Amino acid sequence: MRLRGRAGWALLMVMLLTGCATLSDAVRAPAPPLAATDPARLVGRWDGEVDLTFPDRTLIVHSVSRKGDGWTAQIEYGTTGLYLNSLAGVVDDTGGALTLRFVTPLASAVRLTLQGDTLLRGTFRLANENQDRPIDLKRTARGSEPAPSTALDRVSKAAAAPTATSRSASARAETTTAAASPPLAPSTQPELATALPKLLMGRWEGDLDFTVSARLLVIDSVKREGDTWVVVARSGVADADLTPVPLTIDTGQDRVVIRYNTSFASRATLTLHADGALRGVFRFAFEAKDRQLEYKRVATATATAGTAERIEPLAVTFRNPSDQDTVRDASLIVTGTASSSKGIARVVVTLNGAEVHRQSESGAPKSVVVSVPVTFVAGSNTLTLTAAEPDGTVRQDVRTVVFTPAATGPVAPPSPVTREQWAVVIGAGQYQSAAIPRLRYAVPDAEAVYRTLTGPGGFAKDHVVLLTDNAERKPTLRNIRWALGTFLARSARKDDTVVIFFAGHGAPETDLRGAERDGLAK
Questions:
Q1: In angstroms, how far apart are the furthest CA atoms of the chain?
Q2: Which of 273, 278, 171 is nearest to 235 (CA)?
Q3: 453 Ramachandran zone, left/alpha/beta (phi>0; psi -120 to 50)
Q4: Which of 165, 264, 430, 465 is found 20 to 30 A from 251 (Cα to Cα)?
Q5: Hey, what's the torsion of the CAs at 224, 228, 231, 237, to 10 degrees?
Q6: Is the peptide bond before 146 cis (omega within 30 degrees of 0)?
C-alpha cells in the first residue's frame, strides 16, 4: 500500500512539474462518441412542422432512462414553445435505429425515428383520423435550453408591438419599472374604501405569452360592503368579447390582490403595484403552469384618453310585448332591459298594480335583462317595468295588453294520462386523452343502475339508453348529445318520469353570477 501511495504522489508531482497543460487537457478531453443506438442521442430540443392548422411543433427530450427491459424518455411536447405538455415517451433501440413513441394529451399518436444526429422523422396521427401525417423535427439545441422561437411565437409577439426594436426597448423599460415598483401597501392609504375604487376602476390592457396575446380587463365599479369588496368587472381579448367575470379583492398581508376566473375557467391572480400596474399570473384551464400577465390602466372610470366618459342616462324598455297588443293566450313571457352608466340597483315588474317580479343587483351592473312569465286577466292589462339607479333615480316603461280569450265549445272531460318511464344511464371510465386518469367504478356503477331500473324499477328496456365503455354504444360526446337531445327530447312527454344518471369526470364551470367566492359554479 505504501508503494502504491508513493507511486501516486510521484505521478502527481510529475504532472505538476510539467505544467498545468497536461491536467487541463485531461479534463477537456471529449467524451467518447455515442453509439448509433445510444438513447442519450435523443436528449435536446427539436423543432419542426406537421400539416395542421398550427403547423409548428416543439419537442424537448430532457432525459432517457432504463425502465425494466425498455427505455423511458421524459419529454415536453406542444404546438410551439409557448405551451408544452410534460409527457413520458417510449424509446425502442432495436433494429439499429432509435424510435421515440408517445401520445399527446389529445390522444394523438406520434412516432419518430432518429435520422443521423440532427433529424427526427416520423408520423403524427390525430385521434379522430385513420391516416398518418408526416412530421419532421430538426435538432436546435443539445440540452433543454431555449431555442429560437417558432413562427407562431414570432407572429404572436409581433402583433403586440410594431417592431422588434421598440418591443425590446419597451420590455427593458417595463422590466426596470417592475423591479423598481413594489406592490402597493393598503396601509399607506388612509381611506382605503375611497382610494381603492379610484385606483382600480377603468380600462386595463395587457399582454400574455400566448398565441393570442392581448388581454383586456374593465373594472366598472368597486365599493365596500361590510367586510367585503363588491366589484363589477369584464374580461376578454377584445371589446367585442368582453364578458362579466366574478372578481374578488383581497387586502390581507398589506397587499391589494385581485382574482378572477374567465368564462373558460382560466384563472388570474394580480397584485396592484405602486406604479399603478397590475402584475401577476394567468393560468389556462387546460394547462398546469402559470403565465406572466401585466395590465396597465389606459382609462380611468371618469376619463378615456383625456375625454370625459360618455354618460348614459337610465333607460328602461319592454322588448315584448308591444304596447296595445291583443293576445289570445293568457300566459306570456314578458321581457325587458334596463341600462345606465351609473349601474342598475333594482328592477321591478308589476301586472295590474301587483308586483310579479323583483330583482336587486348588489354589483350595480351597467345593464340588466328581465324575463318574467305572467298570466293576464280577460280584458285590458297594464304592465310596468321599473328600474332604479344606486342613487335612487327611477325610470319606468308601461305597456297595455288586451287579453281576449278564444271562443271555446263544451269542454270534454280530460282523457286518462298514461305516464311512462325513460332513462339515460352513462358510465365513462376510460377517456381518449392519456392525461385523464381512468375511473375504476364509473362503468360498474352505471351498469348496476341500469339493472335496477330495468328490473325492480319497472323501466322497459327500450326506454333506457345505456352508454358505457362496455356497452354497444360508447359514452362519446356525440352519443351523449343524441341520448339527451334526441332520444329523451323526442320520447318523453308531459307527466312522464325521466331519470338521467352520469358517472365520470367533471370539469369546472365559471360562476358568471358572482355568487361563489372562488368564482366557480357549484
A1: 126
A2: 278
A3: alpha
A4: 264
A5: 140
A6: no
Q: What are the distances in angstroms from CA 219 to CA 57, 274, 276, 431? A: 38, 18, 14, 40
Find, among 467, 463, 517, the residue nearest to 492 by Cα. Answer: 463
Distance CA 376, CA 327 (A): 9
Residues contacting residue 21 through CB under 8 Å, at least 6 positions apart: none
Dist. CA 477–CA 128, nearest whole Å = 13
In angstroms, rounded to a whole number, what is the distance separating the alpha carbons of residues 150 and 48?
Answer: 9
**SS3 category, 302:** coil
Give the pairing type, strands 394-403 and 325-327: parallel
- In the numeric block, the cell 323526442 is attached to 490
- Set of cell numbers at residue 413: 272531460
How far is 60 from 150, CA to CA, in rounded Å?
Answer: 14
CA distance 263 to 209: 19
Which whole-number Å values give the CA distances from 186 to 127, 250, 252, 255, 340, in the listed order?
52, 10, 9, 6, 31
Cell of 359: 330583482
**Which residues are within 8 A (CB) of 190 and not within 5 positions of it... i.e. 6 or more apart?**
none
| Contact partners, residue 100, CB within 8 Å, separation at least 6 | 42, 61, 73, 75, 89, 90, 91, 110, 111, 112, 113, 114, 120
Q: What is the pLDDT along the chain (522 residues), one digit of tens a residue?
A: 444 444 444 433 333 333 333 333 433 344 444 555 677 788 888 888 887 756 778 888 888 888 777 788 888 888 754 456 778 888 887 777 889 999 887 677 899 998 888 899 999 887 767 888 899 999 887 764 444 443 334 434 444 444 333 333 344 444 444 455 788 888 888 888 888 888 888 888 887 776 667 788 988 888 888 878 888 888 887 776 677 888 889 888 888 999 998 866 688 999 998 888 899 999 877 677 788 999 998 865 544 333 444 567 888 888 888 888 888 888 888 888 888 888 888 899 999 989 999 888 777 788 788 888 899 999 999 999 999 988 888 888 888 999 988 766 666 676 676 789 999 999 999 988 877 888 999 999 999 999 999 999 999 999 999 999 999 899 998 899 899 988 998 888 888 999 999 999 887 776 666 666 666 766
Distance between alpha carbon 474 and the CA centroid of its chain, in Å?
Answer: 27
